[in-house]
Amino acid sequence: MKNEPCLDISEKFFSIQGESTHAGRPCVFIRLTGCNLRCSYCDARYTYEETGNRIAVSRLVDYTSNYPGAIVEITGGEPLLQENVYLLMDRLLSAKRTVLLETNGSMNLERVPQDVIKIVDIKCPDSGMHKKMDPANPERLSGKDEIKFVISSRPDYEWAVNFIKTRLAADPGRYEEWTKNGRILFSPAADRLKPDQLAEWILYDNLKVRLQIQVHKILWPKEARGV
Ligand code: SF4
Q1: 2 has a pLDDT exceeding 80
Q2: Is 44 in the pocket of ligand 1 (CB under 6 A)?
Q3: Which atom of ligand 1 is nearest to the CA of 121?
């Protein structure tokens, strides 16, 4: 339909959620094009190096309805760069879907509906993007949201531990909700840090975080897209 609100989409697919506390669950992914960051370890360059397809928001909602009961993740790139993503979130919530939003931490999260579960990156120094974070975002999260650190090295690990102590633990009630539900995620950067090394550091320090291994990369190691 003419003038229908649309989004630029890199890909949409049905797969197993590979990350977060929802890892392992069947999930509909809607990946938007464009990103305002250039992380050193980015494995989704196609989202900003290639042109996507323009798809009406109503068609995207229809697509998710092919998979009733599955969770829905909106991701990128950086999905909050496109204004109509707010309409998509509203329509999915109205359709009673469980909606996850994966966002890179550089965008103001104030307008994201409360009922959307936000999975927010805090970029560590080795990403090259840690100075691009919106510093007020941790205060905009609720206890049901999740915080993800991708860790490339020991200095990154120590930086993340310090961030937790100084920023995330500042609100004890919310911090307890994050930690008791394992919603602070430590993910080793692929080809940079071995998962068992990160596991040893977490255990040695008895950190209240969740070691996150990307399930989709174990299931389909040769696939770079659509998983
Ligand atoms: S935010 Fe994500 S998509 Fe954007 S450059 Fe970083 S890793 Fe790649």
Answers
A1: no
A2: yes
A3: 1
Rounded Cα distance between 14 and 24, Å, is 12
pTM: 0.95
User: Can you tell me the mean pLDDT for 114-129?
Assistant: 98
Helical packing angle, 195-205 and 154-166, nearest 10°? 40
**What tokens appear for 4 in the block?**
């229908």
| Tens digit of each residue's pLDDT (9 = 90 or more) over 41-70 | 999 999 999 999 999 999 999 999 999 999
Are the beta carbons of 162 and 197 closer than 8 angstroms? Answer: no
Q: Where do the domains of the chain lie, and which CATH numbers do they carry?
A: 6-219 (3.20.20.70)
H-assigned helices in the chain: 46-49, 57-64, 85-94, 154-166, 172-180, 195-205, 215-219
Residue 34 CA to ligand 1 center (angstroms) comes to 9
